[in-house]
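ugh finaly. both done.
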Amino acid sequence: MNAYESYPWRKLYDPGIDANPKPEYSNGLDMFAAALAHAPHASALLYFDGRLDWHALDAWSDAVACVLHDHEVQRGDRVALYLQNVPQFVIALLGIWKAGAVMVPINPMNRARELRLLLDDSQTHVLICDDALEGDVVREVIEYIEADGKTAPHVLTTGARAMQTRDDPRVFVAQRDVAGAGEGARDLLRAARAAQGRKPAPVTFTADDPAMLVYTSGTSGRPKGAICTHGNFAFNAQTYRDFVGLREGGPILGVAPLFHITGLVGHIGAALIARAPLILMHRFDPGATLDAVAEHRAEFTIGAITVFIALLHHADAAPEKLATLTKIYSGGAPIAPSVVEAFRAKFGHDIHGAYGLTETNSPTHMVPLLRRAPVDPHSGALAIGVPVPGAQAAIVDEAGQMLAPGATGEIICRGPMVVPGYWNNAAETANAFRDGWFHTGDVGFMDEAGWFYLVDRKKDMINAAGFKVWPREVEDVLYSHPAVREAAVVGVPDPRRGETVKAVVSLRAGATADAAELIAFCKARMAAYKYPRVVEFRDELPKTATGKILRRELR
């Protein structure tokens, strides 16, 4: 029996964690129904000075479902959400499911070309968008689609500031009507107000029914639509609740974008299954986040490490601001040990690692709440965690053969959180999903105890004079320099070495350092072929909307 079959990581679970959990729910609507029945007038959404309870969330999502039916949405049709972290996102998601449809989340930072690609690929029937985006981007896309002789999706718009104050906490109303909406566009809340009191026909889902069509970020190529089923969504919402130990009703801080798989499952899914209020803030802002945690006494969040770096260095950062936020997780990008140490020193809380992909509906690996992740003594990498209950993971070589602990290879995984494949993309599905395992494209290793470590993306490896250099290792060293705020490392052409190592960094406010200093700092801490030969300084590094630094753009 090899290490993977004996599941050594189970010895690292916190006490009371069920290593073989049975799914509690088969779909997201059943989770919502349970929360509604349990405490209909408890807070479900908190948005600045606004509050929405479960009863009102039910009524408004019913109305949205009826509006979608009025637009001839049928079971299985795709409805896209092109929104920031606003209450309408959650209302519309539930309304889409109540209409029997499939939700397609779209990054509101996407411009016309990207939006066209996703609408066309998903064959979206209705697009719900921010009213500013309707005038800025959507009209252009609709005109392009119609000029191409295709049927354009119906458009519903909604504003960012659409929640009333707590003086009337169960009422959700638009504070302003949208002026100048494009031909055929309707205001979502105005239409939903007109549909108040109507009930959509009951709909049921199995665990295998598609819930969401979530497109990969495209950091390594053309986005692919992962078919996230209701069973995938419900199982990993349960994983968050049980593995992290979320308290029923304990407020959840929504710092990850809701259009991203982390926000969808780690925020919305976790809030549904834990019957907890979800705190939304339109977009991440470190000052507003510090205030929101203090005001609403948030207990749990998960976000990119850049979120916590921003909080760490904000002028208003103080331990009392984050006193209640005791369950903090970060995923989406490697975490430098020095950042975790600095955060713990300032706020008294650990940042726990989590690892997952769009194709796995967020986590396959997490650090147990009561443990601190070890640092590999050879690479300096911080462990990403252990496979969560229900997940199996392995490290394999290029031939797909499982490797022994300590050996570096590709991380593969399987379990009830893994999607069945990609939308209308048989070739990519066959390439990534093989013999029951999902091949992540990430390089890592497992130690003897069962901790997993992420080395880097396969495609990001630098070949410097025949030597392999993993950017993440160089970045970890740079993060340990007191002047460095953010760092990214890429390979650039070199006439002698083929490729050489380049670092792009931003500095902390008030800190100074030059290229020679940072090069010497790295040279003293790693092999000669690894340290950067070139350093570029920028005020900000390019990132995805989830906070993941875009090495592709830097290259």
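ok and the 2nd:
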Amino acid sequence: MISNNRQSKKMKLKQLLCDDTEEQVFICRFRKDENGGLIVLTLLLLISMLVVGGMAVDFMRYESERTKLQSVSDRAVLSAANLNQNRDPQDVLVEFFDAEGYAGSIVGSPVTERTASRSVVSLSSSIEMDTFFLRLIGMDTLTAPARATAIEGVANVEVSLVLDISGSMAQEMQGPIIQYENGVPIRDQNGDIVTVDGTGTRMFFLQQAASQFIDDLLLPQYRDRISINLIAYSQHVSIGDDLYYALRTTPDSISAPEDVDGNAVQSVIGSSYGTVVEGEDGVPFTLPYFDGSIIDDYSSGGLVVPTSFGWVPNRTPVFTNLSRCVTFTDEEYNTLTFNTERVYEQVELADYYWIGTNLIPGLEACPTEDFHGIILMSQNAAALKSAIMQYQPSVNTSIHRGMKWGASLLDPSMRSLISNIPTVDPAFRFSRPAAYNDPTTEKYIVIMTDGETVSSVKIRDEYYDEFEERAGLSTQTAYYYANNNPDPSSSTSASIDGDTGEIVNTMVESIGTENDLNLKLSQICNLAGAEVTDIFTISLGVQNPTMTNCASEPGNAFFAAVTNDPNEPGLGEIFARIAEQITALRLAL
């Protein structure tokens, strides 16, 4: 009761005060009025918005200045690192920054490393930028930093040079012919190689372009840094003696059967053997010549051969397959890893492309000349160029096989195998092929063709497992041998099985379709492209989509015309561009 009375008295007192004067009335109304309460909050938010919006402006200005400084830094180190730059690199850097309006921006002392073959320049720089809005929160300046490193020369480089030596390389084309003096290309006052337009085979223009590519890479200042794998391909890739004997392969020789007296039994097939072979005791001798009048006489216990033909009794002739090509399984095109443990099948020594009597060297499925063999991890320019200049057009085009070997010889799985080959350059044995993630090593594949991958054929295994078959196929074309073989099932005239649609009654069989082979090429290109530094492709006189897609970047796929087209680069110009990219002056990441 008492509390209620007190509250009533207070209310009456307030009413009396408000009713007393106008001033008191205004104060009371102002105290009760809530209009305009957001103005204070708006003022506070406006200041915050100005600061935040101003930060964006200041940071955009900061990024713009930092980008300019980075550009100046990059161009400065590129200029200072140029091996043709004879001035002190640090002086070049200082003058470059001064000229660009960034005097005094270099932080500390630039790092420079210079030898005859390699130049590295690295620097740090920074500038202070005054702020417009951030100063409202106490940030008067922003520091824009930049770092740059340029390298000219090479670290460690592995190159697989894969060249097409198929039969179409014998066709003529037009192009620039390099002019030489005492074996050295003549250069004009600008340092460019002097050429004259002329006509030659595609092989000729490839030889001069690839040879110059070798010279452009294997400069004295790059000694022990660049290694080149040289791979020539046609229907197959001849891997050469060194690599062939390092692999586990099927036997490359077979002995003739013997009669009861221990004399070699030789069937009479074709017009002649006359081949020098090696006996079991290591002594070479020549098989007797048959003119068709000599016949087998097994009833007398031996072969009737005049002694004047040099027949040596009790010595078994041995046929040696000179082919140094081996085959891959379909599954091996799905991996870069090279299987060094399995046994590889040797390609037959046979010529089954031309209807005639005798085998023509260079037209076998696997070229047998030494200079066609793979050269491993070499920096011997003379040896590489010598092999290239001896290349002869062979048969067929199997780009997928060339690419498979080019990629395999850059894969680390080959290191142990190659390291055991004594003829490999000591500078590279036991260390190459390096790991893909080795930061000091770059890997490149350069592959060239003048056509597209085509399907090929091979002798069926059952017609290449006896001495007579191997010897006969090595000296006569498959067609001639088959048509003169008493066994009619070996005829090369194919017939079709009406029920199955399969080719029958033929001693040769097809190896895949063109689509299948292009798929293999694409598979190995994709795998290699994900691991190596770059893949460069060169298509001569043909637009080959598979080759274009094989390049690791669109700009790495080159096309060369077979005429003097001023709008298209020639082979020499393309190879020169690729060499420049491999050894280019570049910014380090």
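summary for the 2nd one i guess: The chain has a mean pLDDT of 81.
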